[in-house]
Amino acid sequence: MAGKTSQPPLPPWGNALAGATGAVIANAIVYPLDIVKTRLQVQVKRKPTDLEPLTTNEEHYTSSLDAIRRIIDNEGISGLYSGINGSLIGVTSTNFAYFYWYSVIRSLYLSSQTVPRAPGTAMELSLGAAAGAVAQVFTIPVSVITTRQQTQPKGDKKGLFDTGKEVIDSEDGWTGLWRGLKASLILVINPAITYGAYQRLRVLLFSGKANMRLWESFFLGAMSKGLATIVTQPLIVAKVGLQSRPPPARKGKPFESFLEVISFLIDHEGPMALFKGLAPQIAKGILVQGLLMMTKERMEILFIVLFTYLRKVRDTKLRQAAEAASRQASVAAGRTKEVLPVVMK
Prior knowledge:
mainly alpha, elongated
């Protein structure tokens, strides 16, 4: 029947490995956009009456292109890749955890049904949110460190561990590594909307297709991520404000909650400040999600082929071992029959 596939399903860790691999490749390709959107989101426009600069960096960017140009001028090409090591570690751990728990939770849900059927949109969103919440609890420290690295001034660049030590040595202590956890837990609706929308759009637009073409996977990933980003952008901006160094205008006092960040931004820049950095955020999100889903689909096929091959090798070895044991048993039985008459005499 069309749309059916004889390919064996991947175990949860196989789905997680495929998702993490796709995420690393996608994020490495578009990482400069991540730097730009973070720098834009932490800066605050300065009023003529302000005595202190309001942004973490001395530079104040007017657009994404201006940010790219000035980062290259001041820090070189490497400036566009500040904190990439920590970022990719975070991407790997977050996506591995997310796809692992998503597969586990989805499988448990499907197995609990008396009549198996695909989850509806609401259930897909709920499953994605539950998986995202579990993943965030374990992986947010890397996100905090990466955000700090991305917003460090030119003369104050630090490595992954030194930046982590700086966070721990602050007034928050070890809990500083979990700054923005509440906002992150709320933001699980982002991947939930993304993956839920992806699954539903796939059913609506490409129903019955077991394996999609590259452009089809990219299109679905881009559409679903763009929708999720627009809905959650204010929380994304607030989360970045929580995890970065406090702006000089706050005299070193960190924000206590994402609501405080939102209030600060509205007071100084107006409501539209909650959507700053939206262009690079959407561009990055669409490219990452498109590349992620496109790569993940191919990695899943690769792993299915690999696992099928390994199963065949295992089955062949087991069969050969069984045949060898059977032959040895037959030989032993024949020798017993030869010896038995002698003993009987």
